């Protein structure tokens, strides 16, 4: 339960206007700091939801696949340039970003990860590695500004952040293949 309190504190901290404004002022901080921290806050708060509503999680996410699919869909949505623009332009979308990333990404991820098998975990990690590489290339080589609220230079920095993350994930995958143990569990 202590983790749930930490998750709630993190969520509240991220929702404070000065903190949110600071993180959203730079495109790379918005995408690679604020959004993952919102997922982490939901991940930490999930323990409370699992204890409070165990039958819901048993029925809805018995084998972990629905939760991982929900996590992937919401995470991919928030990587779209238009979604980031709308979160900055409309307060309702900003609120939806906070709720969806914490409750629809973080919580299902925590409930699903122990339930899914090795192949599904590998598929998720490889899929996000390829997605990060693709998004990185898109943001780096796009000849036009993709987000109206950020400069082209910030877009390129975000692209390099995606490519760096993808490269680190490739290193993790290679390490995992050569050590032949289940690092995902």
Helical content class: over 70%
Tally of alpha and pi helices: 9
Radius of gyration (CA) equals 17 Å
Mean pLDDT: 91
Question: How would a crystallographer describe the biggest sheet?
Answer: none
Secondary-structure element string: HHHHHHHHH
Specify the structural class. Answer: mainly alpha
Question: Kindly, what is the distance between the CA atoms of the first and last residues, rounded to a whole number of angstroms?
Answer: 22 Å
Gross geometry: globular
Beta-strand residue percentage: under 5%
Q: How many beta-strand segments?
A: 0
Task: Give start-end ranges of low-pLDDT stretches.
Answer: none
Number of domains: 1
Can you offer a commentary on this structure?
By secondary structure, this protein is mainly alpha-helical. It has one domain (2-178). It is 82% helix and 0% strand. Helix 3 (27-52) packs across helix 7 (91-112). The longest helix is centred in the last third of the chain and has 28 residues, at 152-179. The model has no long low-confidence stretch (mean pLDDT 91).
């Amino acid at each position: 339960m202590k983790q749930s309190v930490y998750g709630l504190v993190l969520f509240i901290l991220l929702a404070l206007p000065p903190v949110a404004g600071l993180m959203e002022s730079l495109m790379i901080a918005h995408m690679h700091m604020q959004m993952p921290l919102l997922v982490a806050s939901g991940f930490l708060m999930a323990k409370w939801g699992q204890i409070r509503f165990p039958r819901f999680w048993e029925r809805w996410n018995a084998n972990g696949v629905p939760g991982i699919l929900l996590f992937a869909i919401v995470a991919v949505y928030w990587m779209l340039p238009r979604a980031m623009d709308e979160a900055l332009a409309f307060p309702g979308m900003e609120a939806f970003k906070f709720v969806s990333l914490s409750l629809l990404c973080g919580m299902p991820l925590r409930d699903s990860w122990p339930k899914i098998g090795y192949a599904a975990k590998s598929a998720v990690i490889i899929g996000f590695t390829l997605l990060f590489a693709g998004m990185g290339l898109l943001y780096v080589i796009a000849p036009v500004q993709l987000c109206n609220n950020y400069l082209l230079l910030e877009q390129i920095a975000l692209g390099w952040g995606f490519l760096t993350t993808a490269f680190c994930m490739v290193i993790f995958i290679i390490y995992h293949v050569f050590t032949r143990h289940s690092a995902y569990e």
